[in-house]
Amino acid sequence: MNRKQKILKEYLKANDGILHLSPTWVPRAFLNPGRRLKLVNSDIYALGKNRGGIDERWLASTTIADNGPGTPEDEGLSYIIIDPKSPKNRILLKEAIDLIGDQILGKHIIEKHKGWMVLTKFFDNMNPIPFHLHQDDIKAKDVGRLGKPEAYYFPEQLNFTYNNFPYTFFGFVPGTTREDIKKCLANWNQGDNGILNFSKAYALQPGTGWSIPPGILHAPGTLVTYEIQKASDVFAMFQSLVTGNSIEWNLVIKDVPQDKQENLDYIVDLIDWEANLDPNFKEHHFCAPKPVKKIEEMHAIGYEEHNIIYGMEEFSGKRLTVFPGQSIVNKENAAYGLIAIQGYGTIDKLPLETPTQIRYGEITNDEYFISHEKAKAGVNFTNLSKTENLVILKHFGPN
Ligand SMILES: [Zn+2]
C-alpha cells in the first residue's frame, strides 16, 4: 500500500465513507457565461479572458476538460478535500478511484467499468449552444471513442432568470430529408446554413428535464442545466452561425475519420433519422419528476424524493428534498455524487450548506461523493433550517 492509499483509507474511515469535494470550475472560450453558478462576478474570468469565461461547474468529475492548448492538466477534475483547514491538502477523485476504487465505487463496478463512467455538470450560458449531436458507439468507434447519451434537468433554485433563449431545438420536423440536411452542410460558409428551419424548439420548464440519446440533434437553450452524460467528448456541430458567432467546419468533422471529412453522406449518417423525426418526440424524451415512492409515505417522515433523470442505462439522477427541521436516513444501491442547491444542514456529521457566493479557488460544503458501502448503509440528512427546504441533486453511474 502506498502513502496516498493509506491517506485515502484513513480519510474514508474517519469520514464514514463520505468524500468532501471542492468546486471544479471550467471555462469555455467559445461561449458567453450566464453568471448564475454563484461564482462571484469578478471571478468569472479568473483564468484569463483568453481562456474564456467560466460557465460550467463540473461535479464528481474524473474527466479532463478538453479545452485545447494552454489547458491546465487538472482542468475539469474534482478534488477530494482531505483537510478543510489546509486546502492544498487534496487528492483528485480520479486518482482516489484509481487507487482504492473497490472501496469507493464497489468491486463489481471497478471490474465492469474500471472507473466512474459519467460526467455531471452545471452549464450556464447567456446564449444558446449550436445545434449538434453526439455520435453513438458505432460511429464514435470510427475515431476510437465512445458514444455519448446525455440528459438535462433545470433546477428551479438556479434559474432565477432565464437569459436570452430558454428554448431548446430538438430533432427535425416531419418531412425533413437527407438532401435537405446535406444542402445545409454544403452551405456551411454562406452565413447561416438554415438548419434550424428544419427543427422545432421546446420551451424549457424549470423543475423538469429531457433525456437525449446519441444521434439526436439538439441546441440547448439558456436555462442553467444540471447535465448527466456519459464521460466522452464526441460531437459534431450542424449549425454554422449561432447568435452571430461563426462555428468553424472543423467542429463538424472533429470526430469524423480523415477520409470521410468531405463526405456529406457519412456526416448525415451520424444522425439517428428515426429518432429525430419521431412525431412523439416530447413523449419519448421529456422527463417530468417522478416520486420514488408514494408521496404521502415520504411526506409522513419529513421528505420527498424524485427521479429527475431516468430511462437511460448509462446514468440516472434524483432530487431529494428534506423538509425544515427534519432528519432522515436515505439509502441507495450504488455510489453517487451529490450537490446541495438549497438550504443547509448536515450529512452525517459533516456540514451541508448551499453557498450564496463562491470565490474562485475557495472550498464549499455543498458537494460530496458517497461511497458504495455508505450508500447502502444509509446517509443521514438533517435540515437545520426551521423555514427552508434542504434540496440536493444526486448523480449515479450505470444501472
Ligand atoms: Zn450535447
Q: In angstroms, what separates the terminal alpha carbons?
A: 31 Å
How many helices does DSSP assign? 10
Helix content: 10-25%
E-strand count: 27
**Would you give the CATH topology of the largest domain?**
Jelly Rolls
Gyration radius over CA: 21 Å
Q: Could you name the CATH homologous superfamily of the largest domain?
A: Jelly Rolls
Strand count, sense and barrel status of the largest sheet are:
7 strands, antiparallel
Into how many domains do the coordinates divide? 2
Report the top-level CATH class of the largest domain. Answer: Mainly Beta
Global structural class: alpha+beta
Shape: globular
Q: What ions, cofactors and ligands are bound? A: zinc ion
Keywords:
about 400 residues; alpha+beta; Jelly Rolls; binds zinc ion
List the helices and strands and how they pair.
Layout: H1 3-14, E1 18-20, E2 24-28, E3 53-59, E4 79-81, E5 90-92, H2 93-105, H3 107-113, E6 118-123, E7 132-133, H4 137-141, E8 150-153, E9 167-170, H5 178-186, E10 200-203, E11 209-212, E12 218-219, E13 225-230, E14 236-237, E15 241-242, E16 245-246, H6 264-268, H7 273-276, H8 281-285, E17 286-287, E18 290-291, H9 295-300, E19 303-309, E20 316-322, E21 327-330, E22 336-342, E23 344-347, E24 350-353, E25 367-370, H10 372-377, E26 379-383, E27 390-396
Antiparallel strand pairs: 1-25, 2-3, 3-6, 4-5, 6-13, 7-14, 8-11, 8-13, 9-10, 9-12, 11-17, 15-16, 18-19, 19-20, 20-27, 21-26, 22-25, 22-27, 23-24, 23-26
Helix pairs in contact: 2-3
The chain binds zinc ion (ZN).
